[in-house]
Amino acid sequence: MAHCSSCSSSSSSSSQSRGFCPFSLFLFIGSAIASVRYLKRREQSSSRKLDDDDDDDDDDDDDDVEEDRPSPFRVVFVLGGPGAGKGTQCQLLSENLGWAHLSAGDLLRAERAKADSKLADVINSNISAGRIVPSEITVELLRNAMEEMYSGENRQTKFLIDGFPRSEGNVIAWNEVVGNRANVETVLFFECPEDVLTSRLLERSKTSGRVDDTIDVIRKRFDTYKEESMPIIEMYEKDGRVKKIIADRSMEEVYKEIEAILGE
Ligand SMILES: Nc1ncnc2c1ncn2[C@@H]1O[C@H](COP(=O)(O)OP(=O)(O)O)[C@@H](O)[C@H]1O
Ligand SMILES: Nc1ccn([C@H]2C[C@H](O)[C@@H](COP(=O)(O)OP(=O)(O)O)O2)c(=O)n1
């Protein structure tokens, strides 16, 4: 127990002589309570579960997002293999339904392209190798984009987040940085056979100018998708938020199905 200097002057000398100090006991109990609270908060912040609805103590001191927003952002995560048509559909939906389209890949490529970006090298090395960029980078870009769109004229509050979360690290970082400030209502999962994905990506490579639309990197992206992204989709399937979209159909058919889901 900590030494209590006040005891040596004013506390009961008989208590002190028996080794008992009320003030030290008070300090000890206080610091024990603080430690338990700290550990509890750490545990909550690293939780993998999105939208922890019964969160009870962290709303007041989280200054990551604006305090004046009346309700959480509405979010739909859009997942599926590379080339499944996520970007194509999100673009159409944002034009027609008023959901903002935020592509994690586009945000990373835009950051990489900035002349003064300190993150360009790390983004580039991971994308070129078909790997996932460190999650804190991607989540920070997403959060900034959401806040910026909310602060703008349109006061945007509905977001289709395309290509995210793609890994356990993505989920953890989202929980820490955005957490309950967004409500992930639905996860759209574009299911499409690998041979179709490959031919779409090779076709896209003719015009995309993307360094990762080459057959070698495409194979690595498929591996990353199976190893890191599929478990995340399975996790969301268990909590009932996944709507499976058969993506190996015409753009119009896929669009109609998603439009109906978002209109529900
Ligand atoms: N339903 C579809 N049928 C055929 N081609 C498609 C379809 N949806 C998208 N594409 C094409 O496939 C390529 C990959 O689509 P994209 O939206 O960029 O996929 P993702 O964002 O999932 O990587 C693009 O060239 C796109 O024009
Ligand atoms: N959540 C994300 C999304 C994309 N990335 C990186 C790694 C991906 O291979 C590239 C490209 O992603 P993007 O979603 O644009 O492309 P595909 O769906 O693979 O066609 O960006 C990431 O590291 N983390």
UniProtKB/TrEMBL annotation:
CDD domains named in the record: ADK
Record: residues binding a ribonucleoside 5'-phosphate: 109, 131-133, 163-166, 210, 221
Region (LID): 203-213
Top-level taxon in the UniProt lineage: Eukaryota
GO annotations of cellular component type: cytoplasm; nucleus
GO MF: ATP binding; kinase activity
InterPro entries documented for this protein: Adenylat/UMP-CMP_kin, Adenylat_kinase_CS, P-loop_NTPase, UMP_CMP_kinase
Keyword Lyase included in the entry's annotation: no
Biased composition (Basic and acidic residues): 41-51
Enzyme Commission identifier(s): 2.7.4.14
Entry function: Catalyzes the phosphorylation of pyrimidine nucleoside monophosphates at the expense of ATP. Plays an important role in de novo pyrimidine nucleotide biosynthesis. Has preference for UMP and CMP as phosphate acceptors.
Annotated family: Belongs to the adenylate kinase family. UMP-CMP kinase subfamily.
HAMAP family per UniProt: Adenylate_kinase_Adk (MF_00235), Adenylate_kinase_UMP_CMP_kin (MF_03172)
Protein name as it appears in the record: UMP-CMP kinase
Native species: Cyclostephanos tholiformis
Biological classification of the source: Eukaryota, Sar, Stramenopiles, Ochrophyta, Bacillariophyta
